[in-house]
Hints:
By secondary structure, the chain is mostly helical. The protein is built from 2 helices and no strands. The radius of gyration is 16 Å and the shape is elongated.
Amino acid sequence: MGLLxxxxxxxxxxxxxxxxxxxxxxxxxxxxxxxEEIKNILExxxxxxYEDSYLRVWKKLQNLLxxxx
Length: 69
């Protein structure tokens, strides 16, 4: 995986975050009306998803840095 491929992946992720704005608004509005049990389930799901995403990106960056050294 080269640097240009990594840059393209980062751009794709940023584009997805921009598109997620409307969905996030809808989600937040519905979240406010949920009971505590549902909120806890959703929060745990979201944290697991982002932790997994972060770890995948971090591993890619570590591999790229390892190639440079």
